[in-house]
Amino acid sequence: MPRAAWNRTWRAIGGFFRDFAISSPARFAILVFVSLILIFTALLSLPIASADGRGTRLADALFTAVSTVCVTGLVTVDMATHWSAFGKAVIFVGVNIGGMGALTLASMLGLIVSKRLGLRAKLLAAGDTNPLRSHGGPVSESQTVRLGEVGQLLRTVALSTIIIEAAVAVLLYVPIMRAGYSWLDALWIAPEYAAMSFTNTGFTLNEGGLEPFQYDYFFMTVIMASVFLGSIGFPVIYALSKQLLVPRRWALHVKLTLVTTVILFVVGAGAFLALEYENPGTFGTRDAWDTTFQAFFLSAMTRSGGFSVIDIGELNGSSMVVGSMLMFVGGGSASTAGGIKVTTLAVLALAVWSEAKGRTSVEAFGRRIPSDVQRVAVAVLAWGATICALATITIAQITKAPIAEVLFDVISGFGTVGLSTGLTERLPDPAVYVLAVTIVMGRVGTVTLAAAVAATSRSQHYSLPVERPIVG
């Protein structure tokens, strides 16, 4: 084919994807994620990706690809022994790509295709990076990232990922060697843990996982800090990088994210400490200091980190309920964490409080939260609960496993956390596929998913008569 014909063909293909991204950014984002999952499934299925050189079953390769791209951390194979160096490198690349987020990644691809970040590309990026834009209504620019700053925000996504992971890797290098690994092994293990913690994935690709480091409190604290930075969201990182020492100028989204995150972190740790301190299978054999520290570590990991130094299957049922609640909430909007997001919980809690106080509006930090944002929060909660309920019923019916274990692993998948009672590794293939779909739906986001399945956006130019049903 002549060169001119090739150029016309590529321009036509590029124009098609650019128009598709502009006309339906949510569907385009899902297309990008599904394409990435298929690519990584193919790579992980190759014989060179497995340690024994015989290839990996489709169900295991697909689930690992989903767990990698969606930065979840649930596994159906032993991550330390099953994969070769090539397979582990593929997984390392996958978690960093997935950690950038569906719409942010889609925006970057659109930027590469069009060679410039125009107004519509900025609007596309704002769909993910601006958590209050998902409903498509009017939003005060001061509440989150301004439209003109989206280009800078995209650069912040890439730069913050590189800088934070590099800093974490440097901090972890010496503790890893202190645990008995050679300097050469530490050169790989340090960046691995940096990537798995900042992206909130929770994979441990070294044999023994966190066991060699569980009493190294510096190592564990760095991991917690990395998970925290990844879970608060890129808009918050961006805002703090500009106004760290001026809290009064922080946007409402930043304040709600940080306050809710800290409250859940402390309350979760207190709950685990109270419920597990006498459990010999978890904290019962540890001293007071170590028990307290591990309770905070577990609280941080249930927010989407996915690392664990205890057997999750040994938790008391009450602790599993607490963990499920924390996993369902997840982290911040436009972050590497999953769940319904802390700002969703904050808005719902403020709405309930305002209703109890008889207030006509929902307010926080001297700002009023519009009703359309409250409706989006309710929709996100309803979608998330429905997805988890249907997946739990389906997997429980397939496996006949205890419902507590099924519910915990399903919510862990939906919230892209990665903690497991041990059930996921024992799932039959049909249940594996169901859980994989749940993970994708949780990672892409309930609002994005709802927008993608809607055929059209229709405007209604009339209002029906009002009638109030009895509620409650």
From TrEMBL:
<keyword id="KW-0472">Membrane</keyword>
<feature type="transmembrane region" description="Helical">
    <location>
        <begin position="325"/>
        <end position="353"/>
    </location>
</feature>
<keyword id="KW-0812">Transmembrane</keyword>
<dbReference type="GO" id="GO:0008324">
    <property type="term" value="F:monoatomic cation transmembrane transporter activity"/>
</dbReference>
<keyword id="KW-0406">Ion transport</keyword>
<feature type="transmembrane region" description="Helical">
    <location>
        <begin position="217"/>
        <end position="240"/>
    </location>
</feature>
<feature type="transmembrane region" description="Helical">
    <location>
        <begin position="373"/>
        <end position="394"/>
    </location>
</feature>
<feature type="transmembrane region" description="Helical">
    <location>
        <begin position="89"/>
        <end position="113"/>
    </location>
</feature>
<dbReference type="InterPro" id="IPR003445">
    <property type="entry name" value="Cat_transpt"/>
</dbReference>
<feature type="transmembrane region" description="Helical">
    <location>
        <begin position="26"/>
        <end position="46"/>
    </location>
</feature>
<feature type="transmembrane region" description="Helical">
    <location>
        <begin position="58"/>
        <end position="77"/>
    </location>
</feature>
<feature type="transmembrane region" description="Helical">
    <location>
        <begin position="430"/>
        <end position="455"/>
    </location>
</feature>
<keyword id="KW-1003">Cell membrane</keyword>
<feature type="transmembrane region" description="Helical">
    <location>
        <begin position="252"/>
        <end position="275"/>
    </location>
</feature>
<dbReference type="GO" id="GO:0030001">
    <property type="term" value="P:metal ion transport"/>
</dbReference>
<feature type="transmembrane region" description="Helical">
    <location>
        <begin position="153"/>
        <end position="174"/>
    </location>
</feature>
<dbReference type="GO" id="GO:0005886">
    <property type="term" value="C:plasma membrane"/>
</dbReference>
<keyword id="KW-1133">Transmembrane helix</keyword>
<keyword id="KW-0813">Transport</keyword>
<protein>
    <submittedName>
        <fullName>Potassium transporter Trk</fullName>
    </submittedName>
</protein>
<dbReference type="Pfam" id="PF02386">
    <property type="entry name" value="TrkH"/>
</dbReference>
